[in-house]
Structure prediction request, 90 residues.
Amino acid sequence: MVKKSFRIISETGIHARPATQLVNVAMKYSSDITLTALKRSVDFKSIMGVMALGIYSGTTIEIKCDGKDEEEALDDIADTIVKSGLGKEL
Prediction:
């Protein structure tokens, strides 16, 4: 299992468009991927789960990946978060 934490810096937080983008990246991998924020955890491959968290600017999130392609999955998700301006790695 591998994990990374991020601080959300986008003024609008993780709303529908970036949530969809992140879920689509996560779905490319066979590993189990969990998103934890605001003391709750959801399957990162579930758009409804990600949206239900209500992640706003300033929120710290943690992403955990567990499986055969965990390193690649986490790196791809981390790149997407940082390059899209959603957050910065802690």
Notes: The chain has a mean pLDDT of 97.
